[in-house]
Design goal:
- This protein is of the alpha+beta class.
- It has one domain: Alpha-Beta Plaits (2-Layer Sandwich).
- Helices cover about 20% and strands about 15% of the residues.
- The protein has eight helices and eleven strands.
- The chain has helices spanning about 20-25, 70-75, 105-110, 115-120, 155-160, 190-195, 200-205, 220-230; strands spanning about 5-10, 40-50, 55-65, 85, 90-95, 125-130, 185, 210-215, 235, 240-245, 255.
- A three-stranded mixed beta sheet has the order 8-1-11. Strands 2-3 form a two-stranded antiparallel ribbon. It has a two-stranded antiparallel ribbon with strand order 4-5.
- It starts with a strand and ends in a 9-residue tail after the last strand.
Length: about 260
């Protein structure tokens, strides 16, 4: 049986954001609002030093759902069968129809916050879709940037016949291509693509090949060999604290090397 995971080589990552854009277009996630982050592929960024002193260093860490082996979001889900669940391949999936919108999963996940602004963090891997405003409410806006010249978001959506107007259509037995109101949503390793023999879209779209996805149980897989040949870190929470030894959740996202841009390094 496979057990899927992802390794991100920070020595190769250039912080371009292609993974985030790819994820957003693939999974139809909406814009950030009211402390809610709908970026399934997101970033932690750190700046050290002072520009005036010529010692500024900048660090970028791509982040996503860690698909933990011992996932608190799954443990706490109160419905039966669970809306947040692990599949046979170790991927943490979510069923839209069973979700009751309690947000217990979001509160239990060490990588998530209901309000990132209030909690002073940069990202949340689980996000809630409230009843109001409804999903992709931006495209309800009938205001033109340039009156009588540019189309309004509402007009663009109406002409496209879908919301969002650039919607990527796909089907999956557990989740919708655009999640409805009153449910949570998160990265699912592009499970709809895996079922077609394709890799997650963030992996395919990385121009530097920094992301490697594969079976952690197969010692011959690229990810297994990469982890065996290199030391690695894992995130402890969404503040950026790193795990050294295993601390309970056993994340399936690994970081290799160090992103270090600035001061000629």
């Amino acid at each position: 049986m496979a057990r899927y995971g992802m390794a991100i080589d920070l020595n190769k990552c250039v912080g371009c954001g292609a993974c985030a854009l790819a994820c957003k277009t693939e999974n139809n996630t909406e814009f950030e609002q009211d402390g809610r982050k709908y970026n399934w592929a997101d970033f932690l960024t750190f700046t050290e030093g002072k520009f005036a002193e010529g010692n500024v260093k900048y660090k970028v860490m791509p982040v996503l759902c860690n698909h933990c082996t011992n996932a608190p979001c799954v443990d706490i889900c109160p419905v039966n069968p669970k809306a947040m669940f692990k599949n046979a391949d170790g991927i943490t999936l979510h069923n839209d129809d069973r979700c009751i919108g309690c947000q217990f999963c979001q509160s239990a996940c060490p990588y998530s916050s209901r309000d990132v602004n209030a909690d002073g963090v940069q990202y949340s891997v689980i996000t809630f879709n409230p009843e109001t405003p409804n999903t992709h409410s931006f495209y309800n806006d009938a205001t033109a940037v340039v009156p009588n010249c540019t189309s309004t978001p509402a007009e663009t959506s109406e002409l496209a016949g879908t919301k969002p107007p650039d919607k990527n259509e796909y089907t999956h037995p557990d989740y919708n291509a655009v999640r409805p109101s009153k449910v949570t949503e998160k990265c699912i390793f592009c499970h709809h693509r895996l079922q077609n023999g394709e890799s997650p879209y963030c992996v395919v779209s990385c121009p530097s090949g920094a992301r490697v996805f594969g079976d952690l149980e197969d010692p011959q897989s690229e990810i297994s060999q990469l982890l065996a040949a290199n030391g690695h870190d894992r995130l402890a929470d969404n503040s950026g604290q790193m795990l050294g030894a295993e601390q309970g959740t056993d994340p399936h996202v690994f970081y290799i090397g160090r992103f270090n841009a600035g001061n000629g390094q």
